[in-house]
Amino acid sequence: MTSIACVTLEVSDPAAAERFHTAAFGLAGQVRLRASQAPSTGFRGFTLSLVTSQPGNVDALFDAAVAAGATVLKPAAKSLWGYGGVVQAPDGTIWQLASSSKKDTGPAAREFDEIVLLLGVEDVKASKRFYVEHGLAVAKSFGGKYVEFETGPGPVKLSLYKRGGLAKVAGVSPDGTGSHRLVINGDTGAFTDPDGFAWEPVTQTATL
Length: 208
Prior knowledge:
Blueprint: E1 4-11, H1 14-25, E2 31-35, E3 40-42, E4 46-52, H2 55-67, E5 71-78, E6 83-88, E7 94-99, E8 114-121, H3 124-133, E9 137-142, E10 146-150, E11 156-162, H4 163-170, E12 176-178, E13 182-186, E14 191-192, E15 198-201
Parallel strand pairs: 1-2, 4-7, 8-11, 13-15
Antiparallel strand pairs: 1-13, 3-12, 4-8, 5-6, 6-7, 9-10, 10-11, 14-15
Helix pairs in contact: 1-2
């Protein structure tokens, strides 16, 4: 089964980005960084989501991110599906912080249970077929709107969302040009999907 070992964010200032991700989320090897000056404007077509067990953990992560320099795109609040908010890191990456629970069951902590990479794609069904052909198994699928893959024991889960719908969830315009500023590192070979998202073997990735 295909597994995602980590994702690599291409940033203008890797040292500053590392300070942010450590201070905000306590991330270690799940997210790597490397320098890039590739042109990129507007929505980059993806979000990263930290899924937590309770609202208090969402608030702890949210507050730490804002204190570290993140911009609030959507304040943390209850919704039909649970509790969550959205922030944008100084390097431009959009982070969703979410819990399916609406009530705390213990002391709040700056902890999360999983990382989900959501790719905004033009044609969900076509991208789903592409990824199935590249060895990913489908865990959940809702027609042409959303797909969730089984990505094995890796720390990062993968989902596909309609680009416009993902931008709406993130609280930004769907418009954007240039580089995604993202590389997905898995146990597959190197390839690029129909929407321009690049995959590389994890051994090719620069590490801070």
